[in-house]
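In this section we walk through a basic example: taking a raw amino acid sequence and producing a predicted 3D structure, encoded as discrete structure tokens. The instruction is simple. Fold the sequence below.
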Amino acid sequence: MNLYKLHDKPKSLHKYEERYNTVPELIKQQIESGKQPNAQQLKSIAGDPEFSLWYVKYIIRDRFPEGEKAIASNPQHAYWYAKDIIKGRFPEGEPAIASNLYYAYHYAKNIIKDRFPEGERVIASDAYFAYEYAKYIIKDRFPEGEKAIASDPRYALLYAKDIIKGRFPEGEPAIASSPYYAHTYATNIPK
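The resulting token sequence is shown next.
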């Protein structure tokens, strides 16, 4: 939002003359109108993960080394930078990505196409993502995620059926809590 437009005397506001060099939203408007950013504006863009990614995706369509530190600090922006711009791993952004359940899983699935050990702790905390990680990434048991999986009747059943291909004793209490899943487990899982 351009607060300068809402003021009766915008020129009287502090830093009015510098606004197009320091306010990312105004810089964005200026770039969208076809005006190339100056050095001060690029510095402002580079310090903000959202505007750095926006600048990369819609203006330069290439890596932006000056903004990578900011981009790397945000799991969402680091993931999309890796996926859409680098089209591969983004090591500087991996610590942030590893801290977010959604992006850690999708980084493993779509970028690395293999295990992402740094993100496994957070992935293991959620039944759905732990099951998906076991099924599509590891293609085997995921012991670190079994506690979360065992707490959810649906994913405990699917884990027993698709991954273990047999009984999953740790998940049986959760499965037993649902008549539907208990029946499916009893009729489809070999003893």
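Looking at the output, two observations stand out. The radius of gyration is 24 Å. The mean pLDDT is 90. In the next section we compare this with other chains.
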